[in-house]
Amino acid sequence: xxxxxYGQFVAGEDHQSIRAVVQKNxxxxxxxxxxxxxxxxxxxxxxxxxxxxxxxxxxxxxxxVTRTRTYFYADEAKCDQHVETFLKCIKASGNRMxxxxxxxxxxxxxxxxxxxxSEVLVKWRCFFSFLAAKQGKDxxxxxxxxxxxxxxxxxxxxxxxxxxxxxxxAFSSETVVFxxxxxxxxxxxxxxxxxxxxxxxxxxxxxxxxxxxxxFTEEEEGQMKGMIQRLGVxxxxxxxxxxxxxxxxxxxxxxxxxxxxxxEMKRSFNRDKAVVFNTYQCYxxxxxxxxxxxxxxxxxxGWCFGAKLVRGAYMYQERSxxxxxxxxxxxxxxxxxxxxxxxxxLDYMLEEIERNNKANVMVAMHNLDTVKQKVRxxxxxxxxxxxxxxxxxxxxxxxQISFPLGEHTPTYIHTHTYI
Length: 419
What we know:
8-stranded parallel beta barrel; globular; alpha/beta; 15 helices
């Protein structure tokens, strides 16, 4: 196998054995993204929303997935072992311009937390959209919607949720506030410090905040904190060793929580340059909203936005799960729709880079369209020496494009290690 499939697509078994491949590629201007690859999610029902319920049938998240790693939760000690392996990758990459490191959030803790936290975030966003519709703004794109606080106050007596929201907004702002957009709305969750207290959702019928289905135990509370702490350790070491840290993509039902936790890391570690990157799957119907909202948060707060754009790795699994459980398919209807979504996200990113030169993007593509993006960079005056736009492919998948690109612009190959 090492002379055929393994040798074509895998760099080696550890950070020592991959060195020859990495050094050979660097001769041609092609860097490496170090990916550590290993191979159960809890089946305990914890959610009233079917999208965020753990299902035994879909417990093995490898099914239908051929291009990405899958981590299964065993215990906290195993998560600590994953962190140690990621740290080895970071240290091996240290202060080397041509190397980045990729991690997966499900390797850092119990996936159940990501499921439940994702439900909370989505339901809070839906509550915002519900209130926007009440104010006649349901036809406006979500990132442009703004709630009028006066109108909220006029109906606040009917809902203790609204009373709490108005109180938080009024007393947390340094200036007089008249409207609330989605970015302001997202800050409301930050007001809670205990993680289990954060895991509540608005009930539109009762006007109360309540847990999605069942509260986390004290042990699970510790596991949630452990995941966040592990992510912080990796980000801190990435800064220390001068390494870009790419938080890899996962299934859409994990993504709201992954996006939010990654933003928290960006707030802390992306002050001077983009150290922490998030991955956006453009086959997801909500991809552009996620990218544009992330950029707007970074503008408002003054940190550097980092993103990797991909088409997606879980299409068949996502569609099968949606059909089986009974919720809307989260994936674009066809390849052309995904292409358009990808281009829209990339255009938005390039315009942001042209505007302030603080954002960074990795363009992960495996076809000739990649070359077109390089031409567009030239037209926009984005020089390769700026190191704000990178290109990325999988090792062995698209060498006929990777190496010519590497001669003219920063290009990285995902260099997998299987242990």
